[in-house]
Design a protein that fits this description.
alpha+beta, Protein Transport Mog1p, Chain A, 6-stranded antiparallel beta sheet, 2 helices, 6 strands, globular, DUF1795 domain-containing protein
């Protein structure tokens, strides 16, 4: 797993970008997305789902989940899920909600730059 961390956010949280490749989950992208949503809701009771949509990253169909969570402050999270023949790829961007409008375009460009996905 690789992690990239940016400058400190407005509310004591650093924006972060996590890219993880796992073994193929053995289910369709739709089922994997449902499983991911269930896990997010279970792990983060304050989760507020904003939207789930389909997109393409590196020429591969992906699902993207937008959500907010509250700890001591509000955070916004965008999670991309995509499947290759052999693996699952998870790309997660999290930042303080106050910083989201300033950083969202940069992180969308990071996600769209994934051109080397087999």
């Amino acid at each position: 797993m690789r992690k990239a961390v940016g400058p400190p956010g407005a509310f004591k949280i650093e924006p972060n970008l996590i890219l993880e490749e796992i073994s193929h989950p053995g289910v369709s992208l739709e089922d994997w997305t449902r499983q991911a949503l269930s896990k997010l809701k279970r792990d983060f009771p304050s989760l507020r789902l904003i939207d789930v949509a389909q997109t393409h990253l590196g020429g591969v169909t992906a699902h993207v989940i937008w959500a907010t969570r509250t700890f001591e402050f509000s955070t916004t999270q965008i999670e991309y899920l995509l499947l290759t023949e052999e693996s699952g790829v998870i790309l997660v961007f999290t930042c303080s909600s106050a910083d989201f409008s300033r950083l969202s375009e940069t992180f969308a460009k990071c996600a769209q730059s994934l051109e080397a996905i087999p």
